[in-house]
Every structure is written in C-alpha cells, then in structure tokens.
Amino acid sequence: MALHFYNTLTRSLQPFHPIEPGTARVYACGPTVYQLPHVGNYRAFVFNDLLHRYLEWKGYRVTFVMNLTDVDDKTIAGAKARNVSLEEFTRPVIDDFFAELDRLGIARADAYPRATRHIDQMVALIQKLVDRGHAYAVQGSVYFDISSFPQYGKLSRIDPSEMRKGERVAADEYEKGDVRDFALWKAAKDIDHEVGAVWDTPWGEGRPGWHIECSAMSMAQLGPTFDIHTGGEDLIFPHHEDEIAQSEAATGKPFVNYWLHVKHLLVNGEKMSKSKGNVYTLDDLQEQGFSTAAVRYLLLSAHYRHELNFTFNGLKDAQAALRRAVDFHDRLLETKTEDDAPAAGIDALATTARQNFETALDDDLNVPAALAALFTFIRETNAALDKAERPNTAEVRRAIETIESFDSVLNVMNLARAHARSVEARLADWVEAKLAQRQEARARRDFDTADRIRDELTAAGIIIEDTPSGPRWKKTP
Q1: CATH number of the domain enclosing 109
Q2: Sign of the CA dihedral 155, 156, 161, 165?
Q3: Which of 19, 98, 103, 467 has the fewest CB neighbours in a 10 Å radius?
Q4: Residue range(s) defining the domain that contains residue 420
Q5: pTM tops 0.85, yes or no
C-alpha cells in the first residue's frame, strides 16, 4: 500500500503524490509565542514530528517549516502587561519553546519563520490582493473581501452566503461561523505603538492580521503551492480557510494539496480549562513523576484524527509499555550469539513486523496499528530467543536493526534512555552534594548531622562506603 493521507479538503483518504517526486514540502502551524504550550498543543507538535520522521523514513527529501506567530493580539497584550517591547516579550518564550521541543524529542524543522521578520512579504501579498480587487482599505486597515472569492468555505464547509456584505471582523481570532471580511492589515492602535508592533505601509502605520502571516511565510519558504499543511482541527476555520482564500486569490494557483488536522485532546474525559485545573505543562507532568518519553508515547498512542483522553493512568501505561520496549532492546544488545548458530525464525518475524509497521503508517499514519506491530514483534522474538540455546548473530543483528528503525520514527525508546541518563545525572549531583555536606559535618565533629545525612541517602537507596580516600557510593541493586 502506498502512503495515504486523509485530506480535510476532500474529506477522503488519498494516495500521497507530491508535486516533485521524492520530495515533500510541509508547513505546520506553530505556536503563538505569548506563553509556553500545554499538553493539548503538544499533541499537534508531536504529530508533526511523526509526519516529518515517517516521510524521511519512506525516503522522501523533506522540507519542513513551522511558523512562530510573534505579533498578534495576545503577544501585544502580553508585552504591554510586562511593560516591555514585543521582541523582549517573545524572545524568551521562543527560546523556552525550543527547549520544550528538545525535551519531547521533536526533530527541528528546516525553518522557523517569525511573523515579524516577514512584514515585507505580507505587505507585498496584501498589495497584490488589493490590486486584484480581493481586498479594500478602510481607515488604515485592509480587509479581504470574501465575496470576491467564490470558493470561500471549501475547506470548512462554511456557507459564505450567510455573510452580509460590508461586515468586517478585526480580531485575530473569531467564532466558528462568523463569516465576515477579515483583516489583512490592522491600523495601528496606541498599544501597538507602545510595544513596537508598528510598521509603515501604503495604508499607514499598522501591523498584520493573523491569517496573512502564514500565507506569506509558507509561500516564502515553500512556494505558491506546496504539498502538506498541518494544524489542530480548531484552525480549520477561520485560520486555514482564510489562508486558502487570500493565497489562491493572490496567486491564482492551488495553495495546498493535502490538509491534515489533529483532533482535540481531552484530559480525564473533559476539555482542558484553567477553571477545571486540568491544563498541564511538561513541568507539571514531570513533577508528577512522568517522563517526557511517556508523555510523547501517550500523545502518539491514539490516531491523530481521533480524540485522545489524556490521563495519569494512561501515562502509567505508557511508561510500562516503554519499559517493555527498552528492556527488549537491552536484551538484544546483551545477548551472546554465535555466527553459525541455527536460525530461530527471527528474520521472518522482523520481515513481517516491518511490513505491518509500514502498512499501518501508510494508512494515514495509523500509530495504534504500528505499535501493535512493534509489540507483536517484541513478544514473538522474545519467545524465539527463549527457545534458542545460542541465537544466531545475524538474526539478532536484524532484530536490533528492526526495532531501532521503528524507533527512528516513533522516537520513544531513545527519549526514554535520554530521560534515564538525565535522572541518573541529577541523582549523582544530589548524592555528591549530600556527601560533601556529610564530610563537612564530620570534619567539625557534628556526627548527628553526618548520621542524619547518611540516613537520608540510605532511604534514597544509596549505599555509602567510607574509605581512606573518601566516601564511595552506589545505588541499591
């Protein structure tokens, strides 16, 4: 089976035929950098990483672009609240976002265009829309005339006939079904001047609307027509619908061939809400004792077009599944083999597993079926190893290559090992600091404090051996 995606534009499963054979150009809607994302946002970002990795696994040359929205109502309000410039406000959020991507094992995109760095491209695109009769200026703002684009609504199935001509929406985000002309450029307000979010244009001072940003940045990076555009399902309308309208009205060409949208995430069966206290960040989950590898595994575990119920029990199950996979990989690496040992059928298991893994992901990135292929391979290969007196070297090597190939797409075992190394490093730092405190206490003959520190280390599973050259320690087996 060839690679297939469910295309929101056509509401159908379609084979993937890139514009340029062997090459995939992808644009993903990134964060608005006014605060760090929460676990619901990360579902879309982890999906993007899965798509990126699997396309490369299939042999495509991938150009992957994710934007950073660093000028909009929220970022401007945030800068104003802190009494800093827009750049001063967004820069540390962007830095922290990249650190969060690393924590989740998300491969870097080829480009992260920032809206504030593409103002000239936005102005040129808006001018083209004005010149072609698709946009008009009103008191320093410019609006897209959706009545000039008969295909408006083709992605979201919104009916533009509900619109009353001349009604406009100036907010960066608006309610579903609010079919009105939308702002391409927004005349400057006092708050925009205060934070430095103002640029000169033929229509006066102002700043871009939200939707025009993605059209300008994606076309600057990938051309007027590209292969795949991703985002959360909440972006279908108005954001992606408006992107299509303004892009195709400006170029006269199709904007995107495949639209992939990620379903919402629930937390304990409920929508995320600050009032419900169920909006979790990575730090929140780590404080609960869960690794980022477990978070990534759980976010991947449901099909991206199905709702995912994110629970602490689900995270515990994810950690247990990861342990099984890592233990199996460790067993393979530690198994003593013989070159001329009789085959145990592991080659056939690996071949079947790879076929099932690829078939699953070719079917619109069906990760649950891919995980089933992985764990069937683990179970059956463990059974084969149990029966073999001394496994065949080539077969064990093939099993190692197979599971590592799967993890190059899923990136959960590598992330689990990185987390374990980080935990070990933090433990070592803590133990060494405690031992230094104990040595200081003993030097001043404060043996009560020294004994208290030793008891604390013992309770943490640390065995101390005092030697003439100083204390040595190891973890309880």
Answers
A1: 3.40.50.620
A2: negative
A3: 467
A4: 416-475
A5: yes
> At residue 388, what is the residue type?
A
461: region left, alpha or beta (phi > 0 left; psi from -120 to 50 alpha) = left
Residue among 193, 255, 266, 199 at smallest CA distance from 224: 255
301 inside domain: no
- Tokens representing 293? 């590898």
- pLDDT on residue 391: 94
Judged on CB neighbours under 10 Å (0-12, 13-18, 19+), 348 is: middle
Phi, psi of 463 (to 5 degrees): -100, 125
Mean per-residue pLDDT, 65-75? 97
- Show Cβ contacts of residue 60 under 8 Å, excluding neighbours closer than 6 positions: 18, 22, 23, 24
Token pair recorded at residue 47 = 């999906």
Q: Give the end of a domain, one of 227, 243, 262.
A: 262
Tokens of 447: 């043996």
- pLDDT tens column, 323-355: 999 999 999 999 999 999 999 999 999 999 999
Segment 9-15 mean pLDDT: 98
Domain count, the chain: 3
Tokens of 55: 């396309």
For residue 328, how many other CB atoms are within 10 A of its CB? 21
* Residue 322 to residue 253: CA distance in whole angstroms: 46
CATH number of the domain bearing residue 351: 1.20.120.640
Let me know how long the chain is.
477
